[in-house]
Fold this protein.
Amino acid sequence: MSASNNMRNAIVRFLEKTDNINRSNYVWNAVNAMVLALQSPVVLAVATRTNGETAAGIFSIALAEANLMYFLGQYGLRRYQSSDINQEFSFGEYHAMRIITCIVMFAGCLIYAVTGRLYKDYSSEKFMIVMFICTIKVIQAYADVMHGHLQQRGRLDVAGKAATIRYTAELIVYVVVLIVAHSLLLAAAICMVVSFIILMLTSVNATRFYTDSMKPGITAERFRLLLIEGFPLFLSLFLNMYISNAPKYAIDSFLTDDIQSIYNKIFMPTYVVQMVTQFIFNPVLVVYADLWQSHNLKKFSRFMKMIRKMCLLVFGLAILAVVMAATIGIPVLSILFGTDLSDYRMELCVIMLSGGMLAYSIYFSTLLAVIRMQRPLTVCYGAAAVAAKLMSGPLVRSYGIMGAALVNAILMTFLAVSLLLITAHALGKEKKRLLLQAQDTSTEQ
């Protein structure tokens, strides 16, 4: 066996090592989510201190676009793939689909960057920074299909470890290069290369042990089916990110990079909300799918009990987030970013309220994916996206950062309430069906 094979096998053994798979799934999912959530605020803080507010603003808008395009690459299929416990589609089919969507994602990033260069006076450096950061997200989108397969196979911990290593390496590269070279462009370029190398050594390397073949392959008909199944999830996630970013795009169009930087600094705590939701939701996806697909009244009752507990937990976390924003939020952020943010306490509270609503919207859209009722998502997110387009410009022009915060709060509240109503209706129908089924069974006996 060659030295390279020995090294690859040793890496996989490290990723698989655990005394308790279930506990390891939770722990490494949490660590992975935490590192990913911390990556953006830490890089933003370092970029501000080393390169100033303008560079921080460029990083912010590049990351916003990269995150939006990420959902084009992912195509919303992670939750569908992870909960596909009956393997309706093979890994080769998911893999082929992801390669295609990642190519489309890269093309979308390129179109955005070229448009910025031609019509928004992007400098050559800003153009390249946007492309490098977007490419890093392409790598993340590709890794996600590997992680979805590992989660489907019960090894979310392996995916979590692999992602944690990659995110940590990216963070270290950003921080070190920014401090030493004071160049966001160089930091993004090196980070892209390092991210790709670690992807191949960890995520791709580990997945080959959990599938018969890594070879991507899909027929035109199966591609069409997967395209249809994934489209509502993709559109909801893509539009959700657009809705979150709409105020940033309005700032980019009507205000300055310095104001963009300030808005993103007070917006950063919402990444903590996303981290917590990922920590809570991801490990139970397969459990939810198993309970739902049992078509058993007793298991359905357990399913509903888990939903009620989760809703109460999210409510408690949302209240805690707003209280912390109103008390220690501004002093902590001011120290972290080296910027006086004392004038933006109310804006931060409004943003954290929208973060709580974001958590609910993510949760209910996840539930709808698990119960295969994802198609109504397109209506809710489509309406919210249209509203975001209409509201963002006028409110940001008139009220600045507070206008941006209000756009987020209004739209996230609309999404949370509408998705709650759709989910409740779907679950109510299923409960009624199971009760009738139980009565028929009892009558026959």
User: Anything to note?
Assistant: Residues 248-445 form one domain.
